[in-house]
Amino acid sequence: MFTGIVEELGEVTAVENLGDASRFRLRGPVVTEGARHGDSIAVNGVCLTVVEHEGDEFTADVMAETLDRSSLGVLAVGSRVNLERPMAVGDRLGGHIVQGHVDGTGEVVERKPSENWEIVKISLPADLTRYVVEKGSITVDGISLTVVEAGPDFFTVSLIPTTLDLTTLGLKQPGDPVNLEVDVIAKYVERLLGSRGERPAGLPGSQGATP
Question: If we measure between CA atoms, which residue out of 143, 151, 150 comes closest to residue 169?
Fold first, then answer.
């Protein structure tokens, strides 16, 4: 389990095509400290397993399905990536509960800079809109963020200078893909209500839903 608090901005140093998978070599001095074979590290919000570790670099294998369903498929040598190690038992939960299981991808639609922050608009797949609410949590490229506006096919987030300086969202431009993971609590609530024959308000088949 992760918290969505990025530990460092790493870099892809090599990409090897394995046919039905790819092997990435990534540099990250912070996350590789004490790393061992089999450890988990989130890369742009995707939980990957350490295959090898040497110095300040580690390798991870990514299967075709993950490449197809996330933005990892567009990574190349020199790409910057958000890196985070799993939360240790007893640590503070600085962000929110993040599993490292990407639910879909969106695209940066627009950036509106301000003096002390920046508003970023991101497209949202139709099947994820029901999980995104204003002031709720969402993970973008592994970053725990608060939703400012939740639209029918988009959402916006407000980024402080620290987030812009220390994560990939300071580099992303309109048209660039991002990994999205919605709040897992929302998915559990939906599943539990569904098992009782109920649906959250506003979803098809729910009591009080607008036709």
Answer: 143
Tokens 């933005």 sit on residue: 71
Structure tokens at 136: 């709720």
Which residue type occupies 66?
T
Give pLDDT, residue 196.
65
Lookup result for tokens 């939906």: 190
Do residues 37 and 24 make contact, with C-beta atoms less than 8 angstroms apart?
no
Q: Given a cut of 80, is residue 66 above it in pLDDT? A: yes
CA 14 from centroid of its chain's CA atoms: 22
pLDDT at 71: 95
User: Are the C-beta atoms of residues 136 and 183 closer than 8 Å to each other?
Assistant: yes
Tell me the HSE value of 125 on the side-chain side, using a 13 A CA sphere. 15
Strand pairing class (177-182; 154-159): unpaired
C-alpha 27/C-alpha 41 separation (Å) is 12
Give, for 161, the enclosing helix (H) or strand (E). Answer: helix 161-166
Beta bridge partners of 22: 17, 62
